[in-house]
Structure formats: structure tokens, C-alpha cells
Write a structure and sequence with these properties.
With 444 residues, the chain is mainly β. 5% of the residues lie in helices and 46% in strands. It has two domains: 1-222, Pectate Lyase C-like (3 Solenoid), CATH 2.160.20; 239-411, 3 Solenoid (Pectate Lyase C-like). The structure holds 2-acetamido-2-deoxy-beta-D-glucopyranose (NAG) (3 copies).
């Protein structure tokens, strides 16, 4: 663990809730206090007619409320054909109760919020959404240079909650270089295609909880640089699955805690992906994972073939714990619950698997494989050596006791057809078997 100054400000969180956060997260002032002044976009030229461009009225309403107030997008259907950058805000909120339909086609971010502090973006009804209508591109196999829905850049002390992000032409939500943030009660529903990421975060001191993602790429994924990230109650409802990476040169990722992660019909339950990157990933906990019908479960791949090698050694992975994983996998004989292919130049150290009970849905064995990985569990070599070793396999032929785990009641039966419009979901009221959202769901 690298030294970090732990400061606890205003909001006292119990250590159990805090996880790996370094202090309080969220806006510094209340929703009510920001609502003392409102800037309603319909007073700045917006019309809920699904035709008039929301871009300029939203930009004007932001300018009027950016130094203290609430920008309101009332219930109704709005078209957005030009994108906005909302910057230099302080003590400001965006209340999105309407639905924003993408009509423009430029690349970039439909809504980018940057250099802003004490910020809240939310729907008071839980019905606010951005509908990206990505299928209009995807049906023609087009994805590059298309719009992204929402990006926060250098935003501090903030929250985003109770909003649906639907059918992004490219990414749904990115947290880039943000600090002290909370993201919760979110439904992200995208096409069944790679490259349509759900939530990507590279930031500091961020709590992401109670999020559902349907797509076929990143569910909730941590990138570099990141520190003190707590991610919990996540439902990858037919997705690519959660990941750390892909790792670039000079990766700096530490103190990451994922817990209560439910993964259904995804590529993996958790992947760390690298190919010739450098730097480190350390002090990571993956706890209370349930999976069903996924290809991989715990997957470390430092020679990941979907990225071209960056030419360095691979990042140093150390002190990574997998704890209390249950459920079943699609085909354990070709992919067991552990595939840890570590860098031969920088073998993984201190990888710990405890309380893992997973079995296969087809056949009657689990084949795990390890390469250059040290620690405790399955095929990992014991000890603290840094000597590389070739792939070794361990086969398990009996179902472990206690592997069976609850399923969520309404798993997505098949991915969203990328040639047809994807409906706006309702914000779920559970994201993990037996768990209810940590914070009240808007409109419930
Ligand atoms: C390993 O990581 C855990 C979780 O972040 C942390 O509590 C612990 O101190 C780390 N251990 C070492 C030896 O750094
Ligand atoms: C998962 O997706 C299915 C299909 O859209 C939906 O019915 C179900 O409510 C989703 N689960 C949650 C918790 O949102
Ligand atoms: C997706 O929708 C298109 C157009 O509606 C249809 O032709 C196609 O068969 C669908 N694909 C799948 C896999 O359902």
C-alpha cells in the first residue's frame, strides 16, 4: 500500500461503508439549497417538441446558473442536435426530468461537464434519460467517430444519479480525472456490440453503486490513473463485464474495491487486461461476486490479444484478492474460474483467492490456468518468487460445495439488437441478489 493521507471531512462514513474511499464523496451543498435559484431551459428557448435543438438553451441556462443554482430540464421529449460543454460551475445542479434524444451526428460528447465543483446531476422522478439512438449508426456497422453521451472531466465533489443512459453510438459515461464523486441508481442500456462502454472511470476517490449495465463491452471499468475507487451493487445484465484496463504505459492504479457484483451472460466477471504496458496495479479487492453463464470468471491476461503490445514489460500486478465468488460458468472445461496469464517479465505477486465456489453449466470439469502468477489458490504458484513460468493447468472434477447462487429475477434474455431502437429502462430497485439500493431510488 502506498502512503496516502486519509482525511475525513464533513460527512462521517462508517468504515464498513467507506471501503477503499479516502474520504467523503458527493456535492458539498444540498439539492434544496441549489434549487433556491432555477434556470429552466424552456425559458431559454428549449421546447419539448422532439425537434428544437436543446443545445443552445441548455448552454444559456447553464451560464445563468453556473455560479449557484439548478438548471432544470422539465418532463418532456427534447431533441439535441448540437453538443454542449458546461464548465466552470460551482454549487450547481442539472435536474434532468425529461428525455434528451440525440438528433445530431457530430462526434464528441453530447454533454461534457468540466472544471466544476459542488455539482449534482440527477432526475427527481427517475425518468430522466439520454437516448442516444445509436442503432441508427450501428445498423450500418458504424461506430467510430460517433457521439458519446456524457463525460465529466475535472469535476470535484459531485454526484450523478437516477438517470438512464440508453443506446450510446459510442460510450455511455466517462469519469475522467474527477475527485470525490458518487454515481448511483443508474441504468445503462446499450447495444449488443463491442466498443459501447457502460461506465469507464479514471479518477480519485469515487463511489459507484447500484448500477445496471446491458451492452457487450465494459460494464463498470477502472482505467489509469485511479486511486480509492469503491464499486458495489453492480448488475452486468448481459454485458462484456467489469474490468481494470486495458493498461497503458505508466499505469498507476491502487486501492480499488469491487463488491456485490452480479454478472450474467458476459465475457467475464472481472478481467485485468494488459499487453506490454507498464506501471502498477495494486491493493485491489474483488469481493462477493455472483456469476451465471459467463465465459470467463477471474481473468488476468497480460498478453491480451485484442490490443497490440505497447512494447514494455506489462504492469506489475500485486496484492490482488478475490474473495467469496459463487455461481456457474458457461463452459468450465475450456475456461475455468481462473485464467491468470501474467507477464513473464513482471510476474504477478500476492494474488489471493479465498472462498471461491464455482462450477460449470456444461460438462463436468473446471480447467484453470496460470502463467507467471504467485500467491494462493488453484494453479497459482506459492511464494514470492519473481521467476516466470509456463502455463500450468489444474483440473477440478467435482462441484465445490456451496457453489449455487441466486439469479436475478429478470435477466436480459438476449442482447439488445443493434439494428433496432433500444427502450429506455426504468431505474432498477435491486442490483444484486437480496440487496436493495443504498440510497433511495427517485420516484419510488
Ligand atoms: C493489500 O491491499 C489491501 C486492500 O487495499 C490493503 O488493505 C493492504 O494493506 C494491502 N497489503 C499490503 C501488504 O500492502
Ligand atoms: C435486466 O434486463 C431485463 C431486460 O431488459 C429487464 O427486464 C430487467 O429488469 C433488467 N434487470 C434490472 C435489475 O434492471
Ligand atoms: C435485428 O433486427 C433486424 C431488423 O429489425 C433483423 O433483421 C434481425 O434479424 C435482428 N437480429 C437478431 C439477431 O435478432
Amino acid at each position: 500500500m502506498r502512503a496516502s493521507s486519509i482525511t475525513f471531512s464533513a460527512v462521517a462514513l462508517l468504515p464498513a461503508v467507506l471501503g477503499q474511499l479516502s474520504g467523503s464523496v458527493g456535492p458539498l451543498t444540498t439539492t434544496t439549497s441549489k434549487a433556491a435559484k432555477t434556470c429552466d431551459v424552456t425559458k431559454y428557448g428549449a421546447k419539448a417538441d422532439k425537434t428544437t435543438d436543446l443545445g443552445p438553451p441548455l448552454q444559456s441556462a447553464w451560464a445563468a446558473c453556473a455560479s449557484g443554482g439548478t438548471v432544470v430540464i422539465p418532463t418532456g421529449d427534447y431533441a439535441m442536435s448540437t453538443w454542449v460543454t458546461l464548465k466552470n460551475g460551482k454549487k450547481v445542479a442539472i435536474q434532468l426530468d425529461g428525455v434528451i434524444y440525440r438528433t445530431g451526428t457530430a462526434n464528441g460528447n453530447m454533454i461534457m461537464v468540466r472544471d466544476t465543483s459542488d455539482f449534482e446531476m440527477f432526475s427527481s422522478t427517475g425518468k430522466g434519460a439520454i437516448q442516444g439512438l445509436g442503432y441508427e449508426f450501428h445498423k450500418n456497422d458504424v461506430r467510430s467517430n460517433t457521439p458519446r453521451l456524457l463525460r465529466f472531466y475535472k469535476v470535484t465533489d459531485f454526484s450523478l444519479h437516477d438517470i438512464s443512459l440508453v443506446d450510446a453510438p459510442l460510450f455511455h459515461f466517462v469519469l475522467d480525472t474527477c475527485t470525490n464523486g458518487e454515481v448511483y441508481n443508474m441504468a445503462v442500456q446499450g447495444g449488443d456490440w463491442g466498443g459501447l462502454d457502460g461506465i469507464d472511470v479514471w479518477s480519485n476517490n469515487i463511489w459507484i453503486h447500484d448500477v445496471m449495465v446491458s451492452n457487450k463491452d465494459e460494464c463498470v471499468t477502472v482505467k489509469s490513473p485511479s486511486k480509492n475507487i469503491l464499486i458495489e451493487n453492480i448488475y452486468c445484465n448481459w454485458s462484456g463485464g467489469c474490468a481494470i484496463g486495458s493498461l497503458g504505459l505508466n499505469t498507476a492504479i491502487s486501492s480499488i474495491h469491487y463488491r456485490n457484483i452480479y454478472t450474467w451472460k458476459s465475457n467475464q466477471m472481472m478481467m485485468i487486461k494488459d499487453n506490454g504496458g507498464s506501471g502498477y496495479v495494486e491493493d485491489v479487492v474483488f469481493e462477493n461476486f455472483i456469476g451465471h453463464s459467463n465465459a470467463y470468471a477471474a481473468n488476468i491476461d497480460q498478453y491480451w490479444s485484442s490490443m497490440s503490445s505497447l512494447g514494455s514489460t506489462g504492469a506489475q500486478l500485486s496484492n490482488i484478492t478475490y474473495k467469496n465468488w459463487k455461481g456457474t460458468q458457461a463452459d468450465g472445461s475450456s475456461r475455468g474460474y481462473l485464467k491468470a496469464v501474467c507477464s513473464n517479465s513482471k510476474p504477478c505477486t500476492d494474488i489471493t483467492l479465498t472462498d471461491i465456489a464455482m462450477w460449470t453449466e456444461t460438462g463436468s470439469k473446471m480447467v484453470n490456468q496460470c502463467q507467471s502468477g504467485y500467491g494462493t489458490g488453484s494453479c497459482l504458484k506459492k511464494g514470492t518468487s519473481t521467476v516466470s513460468y509456463a502455463v500450468t493447468k489444474v483440473t477440478e472434477t467435482a462441484a465445490p460445495t456451496g457453489y449455487s447462487a441466486a439469479s436475478m429475477p429478470n435477466n436480459l434474455k438476449t442482447g439488445w439488437n443493434r439494428s433496432s431502437s433500444i427502450p429506455i429502462p426504468t431505474i432498477p430497485t435491486s442490483y444484486f441478489p437480496g440487496a436493495t439500493p443504498i440510497k433511495k431510488v427517485a420516484g419510488m
